C-alpha cells in the first residue's frame, strides 16, 4: 500500500514467533504500518498453514494474517537455531509469542531474560487463559474461547443450542487488543525510554469485548436484554431483511407502511417498554406482512422512510455490491499462490495492491536473507542450513 507517506512504524524490527491467528494478526498490522516483521517458524511451520483448504503450501487463514512479513525458519531445539533466536530478539524492538506459559523461558527467550540485553524491548506474550490459575496450561482454540466465555450463548439456534460463530472471532479480537497494547507501549517507550511486558490472553480479550453484555447479564439476572423493538430479522418473499424501527417516529412510519396503524394504539405496543416486553408478539405480527413482498421492495420502501435496514446478505452479495466497490472495502489482488483474491482493506488505510504488503511468505522463504542482515557470514549460514538449525524455502 503506497500512501505517499513514510510508514509510521518504519525502522522497527519485530520478532514474531506466534502461531495461529491472535499473535500473527497483531504482527500483521505492525507490518502493514511499516515495521520489519520477521515471521519465525519451526521446521513444521505455523500450524495455521495447514488449516482449511491448502493452495500450494498456503491456506487462506495463513495468507490473511501474515501478509507483509518475511519468513525465517529455525529450530530452537538445536544449538545453532537457539543462537539465531537469541541474536534476533536482542536486536528486536518488539517480540510477539503465543506459546503456552513457560515455553519461551525454557529456551531463554522469555521477557525476563531478553530485557537484560534489550531493556527497551516491547514484549507481547499471548496465551489462552493467562499465566495464573488452574487453566493456565490448558490448550485453547478459538472455539474453546467462544464456549468458555459465554459468547456462544449470544448465538443460539432455532434448536435452542448455543453455536459457535463460524470464524476465529476470539482470535481476531485478541489480535486487535494486542496491537493496541503494543502500539501504546511503543508510544510510552518513545516518551519514557523503557520497554514493557504485555501479557495478553484470549479470555481477557473476550471479557473486554463483551463487557456490556456481561454487565447486562448481572443486572438483569440472566435475562436477555432487548435494546428496543421492533428490531431484528424479518422474513421476506425471497429471503429476510434486518430492520430497526425502535424509535417512536420510526415505529409510526413502519405501522403505516405495513398497513397496520392500529398497532400504535394496541395496549401491548403503545409504549417503548411494552414493545420490548411483547417483542415476540410484535415480531410475529410484522412478519405476517414482510413475508408477502421481496427484499427489494422492503429495502426501497424502508429507505424512503429512513428506517434502518439491510437485506440479509451472502458473502457474494457483500463482495460485489456497488457500495463495496465504491468504498474500497476490498481490493482484488493477484496472489502468487491463491491467484486472484479479495483482500479486505485495513480501516483507515488505502486498499492492498499487488506487492510485498499483500504477500504472505512461504516457510523459510527469507531465511538466508534475514540471517545475512543480522550479521551471519555466508559460511555460517550454510552451516546452519546443513545442521538443520535453519531452513531455506526451496521453490518447487
Explained architecture:
- Helix content is 39%, strand content 16%.
- The protein contains 17 helices and 14 strands.
- It has helices at 22-32, 60-65, 79-90, 103-106, 111-117, 142-148, 169-192, 202-209, 211-219, 248-257, 272-277, 279-290, 295-304, 315-319, 322-326, 367-373, 378-387, and strands spanning 13-16, 36-41, 54-55, 58-59, 70-74, 94-97, 122-127, 196-201, 231-236, 239-244, 308-311, 330-335, 339-344, 390-391.
- α1 crosses α7 (169-192) and α7 (169-192) packs across α8.
- The longest helix has 24 residues, at 169-192.
- The protein is elongated.
Observed structural traits:
396 residues; seven-stranded mixed beta sheet; three-stranded antiparallel beta sheet; 14 strands
In terms of topology, how is this protein built?
Elements: E1 13-16, H1 22-32, E2 36-41, E3 54-55, E4 58-59, H2 60-65, E5 70-74, H3 79-90, E6 94-97, H4 103-106, H5 111-117, E7 122-127, H6 142-148, H7 169-192, E8 196-201, H8 202-209, H9 211-219, E9 231-236, E10 239-244, H10 248-257, H11 272-277, H12 279-290, H13 295-304, E11 308-311, H14 315-319, H15 322-326, E12 330-335, E13 339-344, H16 367-373, H17 378-387, E14 390-391
Parallel strand pairs: 1-2, 1-6, 2-5, 6-7, 7-8
Antiparallel strand pairs: 3-4, 5-14, 9-10, 10-11, 12-13
Helix pairs in contact: 1-7, 7-8
Form type:
elongated
Cα distance spanning the termini: 28 Å
Tell me the Rg in angstroms. 26 Å
Give the class from helix and strand content and strand pairing: alpha/beta
Provide the low-confidence segments as ranges.
none
How many separate helices?
Answer: 17
Instruction: Give the DSSP E fraction (strand runs of 2 or more residues).
Output: 15-25%
The biggest beta sheet reads: 7 strands, mixed
Strand order of the largest sheet: 8-7-6-1-2-5-14
Number of strands: 14
Average pLDDT across residues? 93
**Into which percent range does the helicity of residues fall?**
25-40%
Amino acid at each position: 500500500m503506497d500512501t505517499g507517506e513514510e510508514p509510521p512504524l518504519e525502522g522497527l524490527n519485530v520478532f514474531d514467533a506466534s502461531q495461529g491467528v491472535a499473535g500473527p494478526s497483531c504482527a500483521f498490522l505492525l507490518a502493514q504500518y511499516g515495521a520489519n516483521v520477521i515471521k519465525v517458524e519451526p521446521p513444521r511451520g505455523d500450524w495455521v498453514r495447514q488449516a482449511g483448504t491448502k493452495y500450494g503450501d498456503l491456506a487462506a487463514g495463513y495468507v490473511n494474517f501474515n501478509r507483509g512479513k518475511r519468513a525465517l525458519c529455525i529450530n530452537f531445539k538445536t544449538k545453532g537455531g537457539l543462537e539465531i533466536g537469541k541474536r534476533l530478539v536482542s536486536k528486536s524492538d518488539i517480540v510477539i509469542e503465543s506459546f503456552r506459559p513457560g515455553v519461551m523461558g525454557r529456551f531463554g527467550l522469555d521477557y525476563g531474560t531478553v530485557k537484560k540485553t534489550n531493556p527497551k524491548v516491547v514484549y507481547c506474550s499471548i496465551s489462552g487463559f493467562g499465566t495464573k490459575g488452574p487453566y493456565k496450561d490448558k490448550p485453547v482454540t478459538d472455539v474453546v474461547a467462544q464456549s468458555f466465555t459465554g459468547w456462544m450463548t449470544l448465538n443460539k439456534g432455532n434448536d435452542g443450542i448455543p453455536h459457535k460463530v463460524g470464524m476465529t472471532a476470539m482470535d481476531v479480537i485478541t489480535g486487535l487488543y494486542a496491537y493496541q497494547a503494543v502500539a501504546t507501549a511503543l508510544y510510552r517507550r518513545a516518551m519514557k525510554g523503557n520497554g514493557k511486558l504485555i501479557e495478553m490472553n484470549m479470555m481477557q480479550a473476550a471479557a473486554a469485548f463483551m463487557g456490556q453484555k456481561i454487565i447486562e447479564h448481572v443486572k438483569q439476572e440472566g435475562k436477555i436484554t432487548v435494546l428496543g423493538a421492533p428490531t431484528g430479522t424479518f422474513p421476506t418473499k425471497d429471503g429476510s431483511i434486518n430492520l430497526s424501527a425502535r424509535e417512536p417516529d420510526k415505529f409510526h412510519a413502519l405501522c403505516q407502511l405495513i398497513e397496520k396503524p392500529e398497532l400504535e394504539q394496541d395496549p401491548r405496543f403503545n409504549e417503548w417498554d411494552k414493545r420490548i416486553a411483547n417483542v415476540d408478539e410484535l415480531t410475529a405480527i410484522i412478519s405476517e406482512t414482510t413475508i408477502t413482498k421481496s427484499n427489494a421492495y422492503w429495502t426501497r420502501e424502508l429507505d424512503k422512510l429512513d428506517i434502518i435496514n439491510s437485506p440479509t446478505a451472502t458473502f457474494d452479495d457483500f463482495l460485489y455490491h456497488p457500495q463495496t466497490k465504491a468504498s474500497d472495502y476490498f481490493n482484488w489482488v493477484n496472489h502468487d499462490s491463491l491467484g486472484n483474491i479479495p483482500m479486505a482493506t485495513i480501516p483507515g488505510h488505502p486498499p492492498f495492491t499487488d506487492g510485498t504488503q499483500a504477500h504472505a511468505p512461504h516457510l523459510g522463504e527469507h531465511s538466508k536473507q534475514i540471517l545475512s542482515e543480522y550479521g551471519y557470514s555466508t559460511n555460517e549460514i550454510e552451516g546452519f542450513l546443513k545442521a538443520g538449525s535453519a531452513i531455506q524455502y526451496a521453490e518447487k
